[in-house]
Amino acid sequence: MDQVSLGERELDVMMVLWTAGPSTVAEVKERLPAALAYNTVLTILRNLEAKALVDHEAEGRVFRYFPVVSQEAAKGSAVSRLVAKFFGGSPVSVVAHLVENDALSADELKALHAHLNGRLAGSEKKDQ
């Protein structure tokens, strides 16, 4: 999949579509965290459609927009860009940054530790 690049407002609109499902411009506008004009929301949706991230179906005189790219695919793309641009392509540097800057609570550190141990155990089984 190509890189998915979303601006802040585009991401807000995509979040509405991912959580609420196919929606009209008015429905998207209603669910956005920021108050935007109808025409602004329409423009954002058209831009997302031009990027092939959103498509629409006609429902009478209105269009119902839906995401073409999954939230997981967009997450993966965004994280890859972040890792490449800010951390020299090193996922370890990202985790180290989070740990060293107290961005994770004790519970989150324990959960990360458990997750890493589970991945390591799975990896060791594959190597045998």
Describe the fold and architecture.
With 128 residues, the chain is mainly alpha-helical. The chain is 63% helix and 9% strand. The chain is built from six helices and two strands, in the order H-H-H-E-E-H-H-H. The longest helix has 22 residues.
Provide a quick synopsis of the model.
The protein is mainly α and 128 residues long. It has helices spanning 8-20, 25-31, 38-50, 71-86, 91-100, 106-127, and strands spanning 54-59, 62-67. The two termini are 33 Å apart.
How do the strands line up in the largest sheet? 1-2
Tell me the span between the first and last alpha carbons.
Answer: 33 Å
Task: Please count the beta strands (DSSP E, at least 2 residues each).
Answer: 2
Task: Work out the helix count.
Answer: 6
User: Helix share of residues?
Assistant: 55-70%
User: Biggest β-sheet, characterized?
Assistant: 2 strands, antiparallel
Which residues sit in consecutive blocks of at least 5 with pLDDT less than 50?
Answer: none
Sum up the overall morphology in one term.
elongated
* Class per helix and strand makeup: mainly alpha
Order of H and E elements: HHHEEHHH
Q: Nearest-angstrom radius of gyration?
A: 19 Å
Strand percent estimate:
5-15%
